[in-house]
Amino acid sequence: MSDFAGGPIPGALSWTPDLSAADRETVWHPYAPMPSVVEPFPVVGADGVRIRLADGRELVDGMASWWSAIHGYRNPVLDQAVRDQLDTMAHVMFGGLTHAPGVLLARRLAAMAPEGIEHVFFADSGSVSVEVAIKMCLQYQRSQGHSGRTRLLTVRGGYHGDTFGAMAVTDPAGSMHQLWADVLPGHVFADRPPAVCTEEYADHLRRLAAEHADTLAAVIVEPVVQGAGGMLFYDPEVLRVLRAVCDEHGLLLVFDEIATGFGRTGELFAAAHAGVSPDIMTVGKALTGGYLTLAAALCTARVAHGISSGEAPVLMHGPTFMANPLACAVAYASTGLLLDGAWRENVAGIAKLLTEHLEPARELPGVADVRVLGAIGVVEMAEPTDMRTATKAAMDLGVWIRPFGKLLYVMPPYITPEEDVVRIAEALVAAARVSGRP
């Protein structure tokens, strides 16, 4: 295959057999062996809520590119934000320097966040923002004279990323990270949070926290929705219990809003379902509207000042592409689109249509549950699905989904028209139908 050394990749580059061969021989795709046993579908364009494949097919994107492209593709406001920033600078280090896109975005995020959140530490991916949050928790406790508080309390069924610190607070039993259970730090795991928080479950959390309080630095959870750990929704009352537990024992409360943040659950942040503010909150995914990788760990003044007055009065972390100006500029534009409030009506409309049109799946063989929250639709099977069979069933109806394990689910862009939401739901039902066949 010829390479492109000596010039940029042509803008109108078409897909060729050589590229297919190079993909098989060179590219290691996520959650796949090398070489891959499932050939990926080449994409040559994306616009609105559709992605265009090299073979000419157009698919409605039911995944919003792993939950990030909330405004769809080629959004003119976001496109222009990137072009304008390119005229100034694409990148500059954030150590010892600063720039307007980073400052303006940080100020906006602090204003959008739950009450009490005042400070923003940028990272370059969701997993890294979780690493930063964990480091904040441990360093804060150390600065308060509690150097023995080195563990976190979390819940079964959670997922927080693929780096080692994040994997350690992801449920090790039956998860994609169980391979590493014997080398990860040992944290404290409560039972999965229930759909309805009983007094028995609340007491379970209280007892566990009290038993391990001397070694715990913080509690970390995905608020209301557990994402890649099972796409489960739970009672917001659990968050209120955890807030009280943390206050009682001097623990920090961390909400991982990487998947739930920026409107996905029907609230700007899932914390709002409980009316609870965390001490630290991580955001990513939809932050830039799916344009560039960017994440952040946000915290209260108490956390920031506690760390900054400790024995090591700086947070020893600094990703090379922290606060990349291009990413910050498009994130500022993306959050600006959210501030007009139209997303709330759009997400409510998606929820209504998904609820109505996913209902037929409930009667299909092999379906264990059907659930919807905000712009999230889930059909859970009783047994693991065959990803290729389920994906094909959806693609035959012109929809892109990415099943995993027992889960068939969708998280479409907020701008998805009604007829396309219906198509997405019908494709998910079709995928469930073929997945339930013996």
UniProtKB/TrEMBL annotation:
Its cofactor is pyridoxal 5'-phosphate. Its EC number is 2.6.1.62. SUPFAM superfamilies: PLP-dependent transferases. The modification N6-(pyridoxal phosphate)lysine is found at K285. Belongs to the class-III pyridoxal-phosphate-dependent aminotransferase family. BioA subfamily. Homodimer. This is Adenosylmethionine-8-amino-7-oxononanoate aminotransferase. It comes from Catenulispora yoronensis. The lineage of its organism: Bacteria, Bacillati, Actinomycetota, Actinomycetes, Catenulisporales. The gene is bioA.
